[in-house]
Amino acid sequence: MAVNGQIVMIKGTRDGLILHLNDQCSFESIIHELEQKLSVNGVDHDEPMIRVTIRIGKRYLSGQQQETLKEIVREKQRLVVEAIESEVMTKKEALAWKENTEVTPIVKTIRSGQVFEVRGDMLLIGDVNPGGQVMATGNIFIMGRLRGVAHAGTQGDEQAIIAASYMKPNQLRIADQLSRAPDYESEGVYMECGFVDEVKGSIRIESLQEVTRRRPDLASFERRMLNG
């Protein structure tokens, strides 16, 4: 039985349609009502393509079940499924999430010619010398001097940050954004962080206090370290 008698709810937005599917009823009930509602809410051939997002709540769907939903939606002209969103993770997804959010502590000096790469966040206690390079899919925190190359968000995460006790890098990279060392002689700066400025679309370097304002979610970093 569906909660409040609603099995399929269709909501229109300026970006397209959102289909909310009840996660307390059988998959067969969803298919039956979805076919009925889409038949009633037909789309004219002359209308532009409408993007559809399907939200399935706390329900797991197999690949075949997802294809079944997509086929029913595709039967209606001018509708295309853009995404199926679920609040449930598969074991594989959960392990990948865990791997990408773990903090890897490293105690060493990264010397010229050395490259050190981790999944998730990197906590380096030591220096990155000129010619050395550190890379992480998440954030990079360096308790030491950054004078080489640091690349955070290597898989495209533009929200990643790079923080160091002393910042005078040869190069900073966050996702696909690149910031080279200044052409003029610089003394470097203490306790700074680099992040992608969403307005300018380039990497900015600001005081370390900027981290808590831009990334309040990093409070979980402290909890992971304490629980680890």
From TrEMBL:
<comment type="similarity">
    <text>Belongs to the MinC family.</text>
</comment>
<dbReference type="Pfam" id="PF22642">
    <property type="entry name" value="MinC_N_1"/>
</dbReference>
<comment type="subunit">
    <text>Interacts with MinD and FtsZ.</text>
</comment>
<dbReference type="Pfam" id="PF03775">
    <property type="entry name" value="MinC_C"/>
</dbReference>
<dbReference type="InterPro" id="IPR036145">
    <property type="entry name" value="MinC_C_sf"/>
</dbReference>
<dbReference type="InterPro" id="IPR055219">
    <property type="entry name" value="MinC_N_1"/>
</dbReference>
<feature type="domain" description="Septum formation inhibitor MinC C-terminal">
    <location>
        <begin position="108"/>
        <end position="205"/>
    </location>
</feature>
<dbReference type="InterPro" id="IPR016098">
    <property type="entry name" value="CAP/MinC_C"/>
</dbReference>
<dbReference type="InterPro" id="IPR013033">
    <property type="entry name" value="MinC"/>
</dbReference>
<keyword id="KW-0717">Septation</keyword>
<dbReference type="InterPro" id="IPR005526">
    <property type="entry name" value="Septum_form_inhib_MinC_C"/>
</dbReference>
<feature type="domain" description="Septum site-determining protein MinC N-terminal">
    <location>
        <begin position="8"/>
        <end position="84"/>
    </location>
</feature>
<keyword id="KW-0131">Cell cycle</keyword>
<protein>
    <recommendedName>
        <fullName>Probable septum site-determining protein MinC</fullName>
    </recommendedName>
</protein>
<comment type="function">
    <text>Cell division inhibitor that blocks the formation of polar Z ring septums. Rapidly oscillates between the poles of the cell to destabilize FtsZ filaments that have formed before they mature into polar Z rings. Prevents FtsZ polymerization.</text>
</comment>
<keyword id="KW-0132">Cell division</keyword>
